[in-house]
Design brief:
eleven-stranded mixed β-sheet; six-stranded antiparallel β-sheet; 2 domains
Length: 326
Amino acid sequence: MFELIKNLTDKFGVSGNEEEIREFIKGEIKSKVDSIEVDALGNLIATKKGNGKKIMVAAHMDEIGVMATHIDEKGFIRFSNIGWVSQNYSLGQRVRFKNGTIGTVFFEEKLDDLKSLKLSNLYIDIGAKNSEEAQKKVNIGDTAAFCGPAELAGDMIISKALDDRSGCAVLIETIKNLPKTDNEIYFVFTVQEELGLRGAKTAAFRILPDFAIAVDVTLTGDTPDCKTMEVKCGMGPAIKIKDGSVVCHNDVRKLLTETAKKLNLPIQYEILERGGSDPGAIHLTAGGIPSGAISIPCRYTHSPSEMASISDIDNAVKLLKESLIG
């Protein structure tokens, strides 16, 4: 599992620029599904055909990042965020543009009080001597992802983009190991989740499934002096009850809970007070689609050093696989 996630997180996939990660996933699964296609928005839809229930399973390919908005005469690059980007997490981090150009993020020297730090006070330094030299490598509108190669620390993976390449890994492993079932299953690797759950919305409208299950990360309550939350790394995948975008359907929650009990899997229950995920768009589509989610506990989300448990991810695969064949 670690090698798969490492390969997934290494790929460039800032929202709206998911081509590289999409091609990698396609190569991993194309021999294991009955059909595979890319829709107009860029979602990768892989289908295992059947005559039973139509089930949509979703995980988003995209990651947060930044976009170049201005290059000054000295070659320093101003930027805006793609998705929710923390100015504090960004400070001193390296970024990689889609063409491979590397830069570092730092703050204006005139800024005395870091408590008032904003993204508008930051810039990217790519080592250019002037604007002309910088524009040979970076143009206005180019996007960059944060650098954070995957490392293994005991049972924990440390990497950028575990949100949601860990979920993509769960879908890939489920596809590869799914027993024969009468259900017709649509595995959707969605785009632009970080910009408002956009890919999930269009894919759900196209598929019109009987119900949907998404796999994404969630926050935890297991770090020093953190906000109180039941979810902890290493204690099993979480079954989502609600987040800021959805109250999960009782039937889907029941399916996931009873499946976990059947397999004797450790599980947790997630109540996320803010933020949203793909079920938030799916459940409002075309008159309503019963939706739920399996969530992977993840520390330090939207930083270049997110952390998640290998055992939680492995158990998420077991839970999803068994839930789909019932």
